[in-house]
Write a structure and sequence with these properties.
Length: about 190
């Protein structure tokens, strides 16, 4: 299971890295969603159902944001936040009753709450469509939270993915400056 989890995660890593090379938001969302699907399977195999379900919800959230203004309405954001909260709570109940790989529940709870928080922060940041806010949130909280989770669950592709994301943000800051970070839809440096 561990080996397959790592191999599938490598496909998720590849898709995520490819998504950063696109110029249009629609082209960004497809590899991001595909990467999320691979990471969903990877985390299931690595024994982290919370990480898996949150990655699956990333795929759905990406579709919402790729749809643009048509779905950019407050009830949709509330639905995204509620789905993330219910999914996290559900997987935590499951993990409490069915410990995975002999892991203690307390650290599993901590990492589930960290990644749940990262999902909430990411949803608000993407909703803002402010590149600076998105990248700042990603660099200061979202990627570090997922990086810690990935270290705990031994997801080498996940560790590499979040490390790459953080380095990419630093490179963007050096290359384009603080003002340049605001360019592009969804803070990706892409155009709608």
């Amino acid at each position: 299971r561990q080996v397959w989890g790592q191999i599938i995660g490598l496909f998720g890593l590849t898709c995520t890295v490819l998504s950063y090379q696109t110029k249009k938001l629609r082209n960004y969302s497809l590899p991001q969603g595909t990467g999320g699907a691979f990471f969903t399977a990877s985390f299931l195999l690595l024994g982290s159902p919370t990480s898996a379900i949150l990655n699956f919800l990333n795929v759905l959230r990406g579709g919402v944001f790729a749809a643009g203004k048509r779905l950019h309405k407050p009830p949709v954001l509330v639905s995204i936040l509620a789905l993330n909260t219910l999914a996290t709570a559900g997987t935590l109940v499951y993990q409490y009753r069915n410990p995975t790989d002999g892991r203690q529940f307390a650290p599993v709870l901590v990492f589930a709450l960290l990644t749940w928080g990262a999902q909430i922060v990411t949803s608000f940041a993407m909703w803002s469509n402010d590149g600076r806010f998105i990248r700042t949130a990603q660099f200061l909280y979202v990627s570090p939270a997922w990086l810690a989770n990935n270290i705990y669950f031994a997801s080498v592709p996940g560790i590499l993915c979040e490390s790459f994301t953080m380095v990419s943000i630093v490179v963007s800051l050096i290359r384009f400056g603080w003002r340049g970070l605001a360019r592009g839809a969804a803070g990706t440096g892409t155009e709608e």
